[in-house]
Amino acid sequence: MSEMRQITYRDAVREAMVEEMRRDENVYFMGEDIGAYCGAFGVSKNMLEEFGPERIRETPISETAFMGAGVGSAITGMRPIVELMFSDFMAVCYDQIINQAAKMHFMFAGKVNVPMVIRTPSGGGTGAAAQHSQSLEQMYLHVPGLKVVVPSTPYDAKGLLKASIRDNNTVVFLEQKRLYKEKGMIPDEDYTIPLGVADVKREGTDVSIITYGRMVQMSLQVAEKFAEEGINAEVLDLRSLSPLDKDAIIATAKKTHRVVIVHEAVQFGGFGGEIAATITDSEAFYYLDAPIKRVGALYCPVPFNPVLEAETFPTPAKIEAAVRDVL
Amino acid sequence: MGEIKDKSLLENKEFLQELMVRMMTVNKFEEQAFWLFGQGLVHGTMHLSIGEEATGVGTTAALTKEDYMLATHRGHGQALGKGVDLNSMMAEILARATGTNHGKGGSMHICDFDNGILGANGIVGANGPIACGAALTIKMKNIPNRVCAAFFGDGASNEGAILESMNLAAAWDLPVMFILTNNTYGMSTPLDRVVKNKDLKQRAAAFGFKAYECDGNDVLAVYETVKEAREYVVAGNGPVLVVEHTYRTSGHSKSDGNLYRTKEEIKYWADRNPIIRFRQFLTENNIFTDEEIDAMQASADKAIADAIEYAKAQPQPVVADLEADVYAE
Description:
The structure holds two protein chains of two kinds. Chain A is an alpha/beta fold. Chain A has twelve helices and 14 strands. Chain A is globular and about 55 Å long. Chain A has two domains: about 180 residues, Thiamin diphosphate (ThDP)-binding fold, Pyr/PP domains (Rossmann fold, 3-Layer(aba) Sandwich); about 130 residues, Rossmann fold (3-Layer(aba) Sandwich). In chain A, strand 6, helix 7 and strand 7 form a beta-alpha-beta unit. Chain B is of the alpha/beta class. Chain B has one domain: 3-Layer(aba) Sandwich (Rossmann fold). Chain B is about 45% helix and about 10% strand. Chain B has eleven helices and eight strands. In chain B, the strands form two sheets. In chain B, strands 2-1-3-4-8-7 form a six-stranded parallel beta sheet, with helices on both faces. Chain B has a two-stranded antiparallel ribbon with strand order 5-6. In chain B, helix 1 crosses helix 2, helix 1 runs antiparallel to helix 3 and helix 2 packs across helix 8. The longest helix of chain B is centred in the first third of the chain and has 26 residues. The model of chain B has no long low-confidence stretch (mean pLDDT about 95). Chains A and B meet through helix 3, helix 4 and helix 5 of A and helix 5 and helix 6 of B.
């Protein structure tokens, strides 16, 4: 059993990048203000000093150009990590992600790989308002050819990012802004977490809360509260949305017979619908004792006012109410 | 034809013949592709480059096999010039399993990575940023004597992607050759209706890099211009813009009724297309006789006819393989 040490989510992301850049000289990091400024969220602290300005490559404010440069360098032998300062900015360079990166391996008959990681802070709760607070995983998930990962802990962040950097496809790595300062334990030894494997963060028997990202912590809080009432909730952290661990989803539904899906993204058209359909279109359907409930953000742009903002997103009270609905 | 700088070219009959045969092959490929459409043998649409043969052939003749190139949706000539196998490209047009893209890409996405063809793109302007990336690889890996050429048209030159990538290539001194084939129409829209400044080469100066310009229907002018520009790039001077003025006599795509231009205009340019002009040049300078040039045409015609026979005999892709290659291993 190796030594464990405490680390923040932010530092775990950095460690993954640093280790992979030391391991493979083809890996380089590109984005806005990632050098002396250390990145908008302080993730790339000290990286410029270690790797220099060629491999810690600061860009002009030209998302289309540098996202496309990521694609072009990936298809000619490099392994770029491209930071999109806010995941909302994917709209600025969407063509290069969905029409280029996602499709090249297929359109070009498997003759080229696009091994790029797009790291981007996602989610709200920081008062950044409508254009800087979104969870837009559906915009990536709906386009065949991309992989989408959403870590909820430092341990998951480091292991999944290393695996993403080593993956030969374009992986969208949706970091959770509100979790950057959260602490967790990681081992000293080198480790990766395979994409496509969910993690039961809390075992339970009475209800399954299927979730990912920032909502994992909130769901665990709600589960602890229910434990006081003798209700034992299972919390399944998907970690990887594409590839998706369908077996884990079906297994937990079969186990507890009651499912609540929680995600920070807008509920309408959100990934919760896909998870629910995955369950109902499987043998797990016959094990359900209640309809599947989803708790997602309200159908409106994220407002600025802090009280309004908090109510836009799932809250412990809303998750609790949904769980009571299915019990 | 314009003044040739390197007079020794005039003695290089093999090279001159190759240029002519390539242009004729491109022209015949496009003409026959159109005919195959009429026969109902081609799915979808196609963007033919009749009239623009010198841009594809002349430019690629000045690139090496290892140079990276990004072609456009109107890129059969660009791909042929860069060395794609004629039979495989024809098979791809006919959507066969042994086409360049195994039938999964089609005309707009022809690729051949062994010859540096990093794919043709169906999104106008997308080539600019991707070229910056390939050029970044050249720079980061210190690959000597290598450039990335990105083709795009006058229409695409107004895409943000092109403007951003010009700035980025200049700022980072990337070995990108921005090849702007100006056929004066963005699909059906004439250039003078969509820009204030029609002198497109000035855009390079705005971003701080060098531009070249040539008669895009003069294959030797294109070749010499691109050759000189390539030397400049390879010497580490950053990117270049090469504006090649040309004219597209074929329609934008299969559905083009040519309502936006006159028959007279099309005929004017057809009468002075790059192949006619090069023939005149070769015969007037006593390099080849008309009979010799007719023989070149016959060889191009045969190569295309053979390619069509080859492609028609190729198998269809297997439906079970449909979802293969969504992800890499």
